[in-house]
Specification:
Mean pLDDT: 81
Structural class: alpha+beta
Strand content: 25-35%
Order of helices and strands: EEEHEHHHEEEH
Distance between the termini: 28 Å
Helix content: 25-40%
Largest sheet: 4 strands, antiparallel
Radius of gyration: 19 Å
Shape: globular
């Protein structure tokens, strides 16, 4: 067995229960190139762990939340608000393999951003085709 001394240039240590702890981990992917690489590899690990077979087809759709009223701002403009939105849409997500990405855009002269939820559902035939080659490219960039 090989001892890991670093992981993508992050120092690591072994815990008493045999896990590997990453020291000085970054808070978000955009902090640095090595933070981006770490987060990207963690996402790829989750994809491989999900046992999705490639190639896959994805059906893509988007939902935009705009800060049109005080009620919308109070309801959706927090981390809990993102969960509320997903809970409200559970019927279209349940029993399916669906990924989502949140995009934030600021309209000119606006105090609050628009939230755009991009959904990608794994389907038999869809708008987007992803092969294992696409994921390999992501891994080595």
């Amino acid at each position: 067995m090989e001892n890991i001394t670093d992981l993508l240039d992050f120092e690591v240590r072994y815990t008493e229960d045999g896990n590997i702890e990453i020291l000085d981990i970054c808070n978000y992917p955009q902090e640095s190139k090595k933070c981006f690489d770490l987060h990207k590899h963690l996402e790829l690990h989750n994809i491989y762990k999900s046992e999705i077979e490639f190639p896959i087809n994805l059906y893509q759709w988007s939902v935009t939340i705009t800060p049109d009223s005080e009620e919308i701002i109070k309801k959706y403009y927090s981390l809990d608000g993102v969960k509320v939105f997903l809970d409200e849409n559970i019927s279209i997500l349940k029993d399916k393999t669906t990924f989502f990405k949140l995009q934030i855009t600021y309209p000119p002269k606006s105090k609050y951003p628009n939230f755009i939820f991009h959904f990608y559902e794994v389907v038999d035939e869809g708008d987007i085709y992803i092969s294992l080659m696409n994921l390999t490219y992501l891994k080595i960039v």
